[in-house]
Each structure stands twice: as C-alpha cells, then as structure tokens.
Amino acid sequence: MTAGLQTEALTLGYGGKPVIQKLNLSIPKGKVTVFVGSNGCGKSTLLRSLARLLKPREGTVWLDGKDIARQSTKKTARKLAILPQGPTAPEGLTVLQLAKQGRYPHQSWLQQWTEEDERMVRWALDVTQMTPHADRSVDSLSGGQRQRAWIAMTLAQGTDTLLLDEPTTYLDMTHQIEVLDLLFNLNRVEKRTVVMVLHDLNLAARYADHMVAIRQGRVHAQGAPEAILTPALAREVFEVDCRIIPDPLFGTPMLIPYGQGRMLSPKTLMGTGS
Predict the structure, then answer these.
(1) Which of 231, 256, 126, 101 is closest to 182 using CA atoms?
(2) Could you report how far apart the first and last alpha carbons of the chain are, in Å?
(3) Model-level pTM?
(4) In the chain, pLDDT over 70 holds for what percent of residues?
C-alpha cells in the first residue's frame, strides 16, 4: 500500500442492502478530491467510513498503509479531521471554545494544554478569518461565518487530511465561494489533502483536482473533471440531459442542463457578448 487514504473491497451499510459494495478507491495525496453523485448513492456513507466513524461490513480502509480500524480513535484524529454535514454546537459556545475542541486528540492525562495547542488554535482562527469573532457565540454567526468556525476547529487538529461533507449546504452563493476558496487555498498553500462531498457539479469541477462520480454504491468514473465530466456521465449518474461547455472564467467543464426555461432571443444573445 502506498501512503495516503485508500479503500480495498470496502462494503458499507446500515442494516439492509449495502450502500457501498466492494469499493476500491485511492485518494490522491495533497490534492482536492470531490465526491459527486445523486442523493442516496453513498457519498456521505463513504466519507464517514474514511473517517473511521462507520465500521465496514467487509473490506478495509487504509491510512498511510495501515488498517484504520486497527488504529486508536485518538491516533486517527491526529491524522485526519472530518466536518460532518450540518454540525451543531452547544448553545453559547464561542468560536474560540469550538476551535479549542480541535486540540482534544492531542490532550492526555500527562499532557494538558500546551503552547503548541495555543499556536494551532490561533493559526486556525487567523487562516479562516475568524479571529475578530473569537468571543462570539457560534449560534450568533452568519452561515458562512459558522462554516468557517467549524473549519477552524478541524484545522486546529493539525491533520494532513480534511474530510468535509457538503460544506456549502444551505449557504448562499457568496458564502459557498468563500468556503471553497478557503479550502482550495489550504490545499495549495498548506498542501493539505482535501476530500469533499459536493452537490453542485460546476463548483465541483472548478475546485477538484480529482473527481469521483458514485452511482448505486460503486465508482462510476473517476479522474480529472476535464476527463470524466461528459453528457453521458451526467445522464447515467444524475439522469439529466445537458451540454458541457468550458467555464468562461476558469476553463473547467460547466454543465448546462436541458429543461424548461425562458429562452433569450438571438438578438438578446448577441447583445450579451458585446
């Protein structure tokens, strides 16, 4: 096994029919990987298993060449951090107190709060631009600020790998870009491995180095968005007919779905290009 996060013949489920079946997957180290797929296809289930929150029915999750199930929870939490979908904080918990929770995997009876813990928390708040809000309660923040506060907690763990389940859910467009830019910069500057579940295919294509399309519990396709995002994939995975064109700003694939809508006249279309 090479270093990084991998699965081997991984089967996952909650009681009935398996959600993920015999999955072999390798997450590129130091890259941004995005899981995409229709609702219920197993994206979040897979992410939970990668974080050791869900025990496999069969198969193995490997972290840096070692079976993650044979490592302690605390040891695993020093290597990877997960931000679940829609996390909630106790009422009145401040941003600083939340960020400090990220250092719990590094605490023990013999080693209490250290200067390194303090440094990591302050760095996490700075990089997420949450230092000015450190003394505010989490429940008083806007949606984008709240997501940044939770990301600060995951960053304070000091892990090389970040797992995030739909980090842009319920956010408006401005806050979606704000959060994704933050994660992208963490990858590019800090070389963190970032694994995300996203619903928006166009944003997934813009930010992902590696895209994994999941259909009915199996990997339908994976690779660079430019290589795998096609009208055929959109039809097979999402049951939508579309055109794929280059994003006019970034050059990444942009999906334009067919459907009902207001059609602009040729004269209006010509005017938009001036």
Answers:
(1) 126
(2) 55
(3) 0.88
(4) 95
